[in-house]
Amino acid sequence: MNLQKINILKRNSNNIKKKLGSKKKVFFFLDSVSFPLIKKRLNFLKLKNFKFYFIFEKEKYFKNRINRFITKEQFYLLSKDNQNRVAKKIDKINPDLGIIFSFGQKIYPIIIKKFRFKIINYHTSILPKYGGANPLFWTIVNNENRTGVSVHYINHMFDSGGLIQQSTFKIKSTDNRKSLSTKLEKITLNLIFKNLTKFSKSKCATKLIENTKIWPRFNKSKEINLNDDEFKIQQFIKALTKPILINEWTYPYFISKMGKLVKFQSVPSIEEIRILKKKHL
């Protein structure tokens, strides 16, 4: 084959690639809860125009699940101490977009600037009122009547940056932590994959998020104060009680007169709380 024919083939190949478009490279920043949800949706959608990579905080969450779904080349661990090293690896890939869905590690500017169309966080609360790692807890404790998902570009500060969109809904009196978590997860997944093509091709217009209030993960203690009014006690228990995917240490409790630890694995009624208060105060 002469040089002229080789050049013609190369030009044809390049023209085909331009028409089809190269695969978009997208990084997901995930934890042990969000990874299975994303994995299930990707298995269902089978998106051929994308190449996906995954960044986690802790390897132990994924040891037994990762190799069946992604290769070692698609898997990265990120910590406070290795961000420079991970940034160099990401730089070689030349990614288009980063997506955060429940990721507790702070991401530094050295990582953020490697993404052509930035990193987008899907935060499961209404910003700037409820920032932090566990906004649903405080949304319930504070008896808010609405919650939702805030979609924003990240910067060097927690839950700040340019707000792209918000999807909110009314909290019903029958809602609990489980039902609200399920609704927020569904909205987040729908938004991620609805926006995927658009966000990986261009930057979006935003409104700056200012004065975000960062709430702590939980109260310092899960101990119930029986001197609080019944409704406040009920909201506190409701915020900590999730029948699925919950560790025992998160159960709210109080110490009885006999010194016994009394835990709540479900939300009591106001009347049940009144009876407990009469018995133990």
Description of the structure:
The protein has 281 residues and is an alpha/beta fold. The chain is 35% helix and 21% strand. It has eight helices and twelve strands. Strands 3-2-1-4-5-7-8-9 form an eight-stranded mixed β-sheet, covered by helices on one side. Strand 1, helix 2 (34-45) and strand 2 (50-56) form a beta-alpha-beta unit. Helix 5 (135-141) runs antiparallel to helix 7 (230-240) and helix 7 crosses helix 8 (270-280). The model is unreliable at 12-20 (pLDDT under 50).
| Fraction in beta strands | 15-25%
Helical stretch tally: 8
Low-confidence stretches: 12-20
Helix content: 25-40%
Summarize the structure.
The chain is of the alpha/beta class.
Question: How are the SSEs ordered, and which strands pair?
Answer:
Elements (H helix, E strand, L loop, with lengths): L2 H18 L3 E7 L3 H12 L4 E7 L18 E3 L5 H11 L3 E5 L7 H4 L6 E5 L7 E2 L2 H7 L4 E8 L7 E10 L6 H23 L7 E3 L4 E2 L14 H11 L12 E3 L5 E3 L6 H11 L1
Question: What descriptors fit this protein?
Answer:
single chain; alpha/beta; two-stranded parallel sheet; 8 helices; elongated
